[in-house]
């Protein structure tokens, strides 16, 4: 994790007591894996595209089994070609799995056809990367389109469109055409259109990747409010861990058609297991130390120096009094070299970089420190030594 020198979160009040370090250890299970009432379930899914015009067939998805809890915000992340697009097309019934089934709101959508499929698809809204608005229609008319297709009465359409424009914060753009709207305003129209038929699931397919950072934050805040106020289950399809970090509570990591890691976002951020997940996290939060500290680290222990240990912490009061308690219980003069605490998935997670004195006992203090941290399920690593 990236650490700014002494950029200490206000909760790191070293003089205050801590009730238990168990509170900042990782959860044993993932909410996505144990949700009793799943909105979306993938059961034994594989998806293979046959050979076409001389091109070989593609195994886009293999052995997919996971659940998305009802009312949750779940991120599905992977690089290009990981299988994200195939996954979202299975959820909304645009593709059928080669094996297995996809259950959406207790209906096997992979088994539906014709009118039954079209009715089920009305309960699944879709937000697109490039907005997909009709240039010849105003904002209001774009939002009205799915309601017209569904056969709503004109008066009901007008009322629903006005309600949605207000919800997404562009009531004054009612008569504007897409060419007259900014990227963020276009996406708000797209979100309103996706919500028109009151879906229970909202799919966001790279919905912010074409937007600038400030607009992205505003759109993600809007989606969070929609989830909170309407209870809509949101599935974020993305290649940006920063999007998952800001909005999602659970995350599923795809690579080469396989689920390689899944769980609560805070779990994944504090101790990622798969290299692809680690690379995503390095892009978002980095893995560097302050230059002033990194330049001093050496690989061999200097006489009278310190071992540099990085500890990953999580939970309410993450890291509170860790240094003081470690020093008190092990009788060590522990230094806090740098720290970073963030809020991810509704929980505080971060890292503390500690200096452990080598003294006359050499590595003994470092070994005892690592054993003490392990006792409280606090992941730690030795980075090297400083004089």
Give the class from helix and strand content and strand pairing.
Answer: alpha/beta
**Radius of gyration using CA atoms only:** 25 Å
* Extended strand count: 14
The largest pleated sheet is described as: 6 strands, mixed
Contiguous helical run count:
13
| Estimated helix fraction | 25-40%
Strand portion: 25-35%
Ends apart, CA distance between termini: 23 Å
Describe the structure.
- Strand 9 and strand 10 form a beta hairpin.
- Helix 5 packs across helix 6 (183-195) and helix 6 packs parallel to helix 7 (213-230).
- The two termini are 23 Å apart.
- This protein has helices at 31-34, 84-91, 114-121, 139-149, 154-167, 183-195, 213-230, 241-247, 265-270, 275-285, 291-294, 322-330, 364-375, and strands at residues 38-49, 58-69, 73-77, 99-104, 107-108, 124-127, 201-205, 233-238, 250-255, 258-264, 306-314, 335-344, 347-357, 380-386.
- 32% of the residues lie in helices and 26% in strands.
- The protein has a 6-stranded mixed sheet, with helices on both faces. Strands 2-1-4-5 form a 4-stranded antiparallel sheet. It has a 4-stranded antiparallel sheet with strand order 12-13-11-14.
């Amino acid at each position: 994790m990236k650490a700014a020198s002494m950029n200490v979160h206000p909760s790191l009040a070293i003089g205050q007591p801590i009730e238990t370090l168990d509170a900042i250890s990782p959860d044993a299970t993932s909410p996505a894996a144990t949700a009793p009432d799943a909105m979306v379930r993938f059961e034994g899914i594989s998806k293979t595209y046959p050979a076409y015009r001389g091109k070989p067939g593609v195994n886009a998805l293999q052995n997919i089994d996971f659940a998305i809890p009802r009312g949750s915000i779940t991120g599905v992340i992977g690089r290009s070609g990981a299988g994200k697009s195939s996954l979202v097309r299975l959820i909304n019934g645009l593709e059928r799995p080669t094996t297995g089934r996809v259950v959406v709101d207790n209906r096997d959508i992979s088994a539906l056809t014709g009118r039954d499929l079209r009715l089920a698809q009305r309960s699944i809204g879709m937000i697109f990367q490039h907005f997909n608005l009709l240039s010849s229609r105003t904002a209001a008319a774009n939002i009205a389109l799915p309601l017209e297709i569904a056969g709503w009465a004109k008066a009901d359409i007008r009322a629903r469109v006005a309600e949605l424009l207000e919800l997404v914060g562009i009531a004054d753009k009612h008569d504007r055409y897409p060419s007259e709207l900014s990227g963020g305003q276009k996406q708000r129209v797209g979100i309103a259109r996706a919500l028109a038929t009151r879906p229970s699931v909202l799919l966001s397919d790279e919905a912010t990747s074409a937007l600038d950072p400030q607009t992205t934050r505003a759109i993600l805040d809007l989606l969070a409010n929609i989830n909170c106020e309407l209870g809509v289950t949101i599935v974020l399809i993305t290649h940006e861990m920063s999007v998952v970090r800001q909005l999602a509570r659970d995350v599923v990591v795809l690579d080469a058609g396989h689920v390689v890691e899944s769980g609560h976002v805070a779990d994944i951020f504090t101790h990622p297991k798969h290299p692809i997940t680690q690379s995503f996290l390095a892009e978002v939060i980095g893995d560097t130390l302050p230059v002033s500290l990194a330049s001093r680290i050496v690989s061999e222990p200097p006489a009278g120096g310190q071992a540099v240990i990085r500890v990953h912490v999580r939970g309410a009061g993450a890291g509170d009094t860790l240094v003081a308690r470690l020093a008190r219980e092990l009788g060590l003069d522990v230094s806090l070299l740098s720290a970073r605490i963030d809020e991810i998935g509704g929980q505080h997670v971060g890292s503390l970089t500690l200096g452990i004195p080598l003294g006359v006992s050499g590595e003994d203090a470092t070994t005892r420190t690592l054993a003490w941290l392990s006792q409280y399920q606090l992941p730690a690593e030795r980075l090297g030594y400083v004089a």
